[in-house]
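ok so i was messing around last nite and threw this chain in just to see what happens. nothing serious, just curious
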Amino acid sequence: MFRRTRTTEPARSAEALRLVKVRKVYGSAGNAVTALDDVSLSLPAGSFTAVMGPSGSGKSTLLQCAAGLDRPDSGLVMVDGAEMTGGSEAALTKFRRRRIGFVFQQYNLLPTLTVAQNTTLPLKLAGRHVDRARAGEILAQVGLGDRLGHRPDQLSGGQRQRVAIARALVTEPAVIFADEPTGALDTRSARDVLGLLQRTVRVHGGTVVMVTHDPVAASYADSVLFLADGRLAGRLTAPTVDAVAERLAHLGDAVDHGANPAHHGGANPARHDLTAGV
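result:
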């Protein structure tokens, strides 16, 4: 399942993602909110990492800066060994389309396109060759081989998220960023989607970074990074549901009793349009 077909691209870096002292502040003067406070991390290729933290901890901002959907105010972001920070918007868009895949909570599928067309959209936007046979193979691998001509409103929530995963896979990205991918799904569909993300890593050799609030979802990952007040607050390897829930409870208590309002990252003003991740 999820066989790699890349033959002409350079070999992947052993390090899928690196952040060095990444800082992001929203607002100015007395209204400044520090969403990320000099965050540094390194994630190896072929890993599945969940990012968690209390509300306002900076986890969504971390994903958006790491994925190139928002620019940090300072610091360095590297994906697959290449620097992403800096450059024009056009260069950043090109970088994303070549190296990054996205799976959003609300799927971000275009309603007028079929399953097959939504899946190949990133290739068309990037001006790359559209191999419809390979796209069909990926859709078959995620269980949608008989839905190629359907439109999003003819699919269940779980099926729509499978399309989003296929769309992320079709470009063979260095990293897939998933933002609350199971937040709109029922328990069974969520389990199926998490299994697909897990197999993307373990079978396909991909790298997944997933923001989630759900300890069950986090337990599918290889490790969990915890954030609090815009700073890294620990890592948990081989996570279990109980261990994740306990760590989150302690983080929540710490924030409730000692949070610095200057570091409390509230609602992120960044917005996604339907093609932001493709």
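not much to say yet. The two ends are 23 Å apart (CA to CA).
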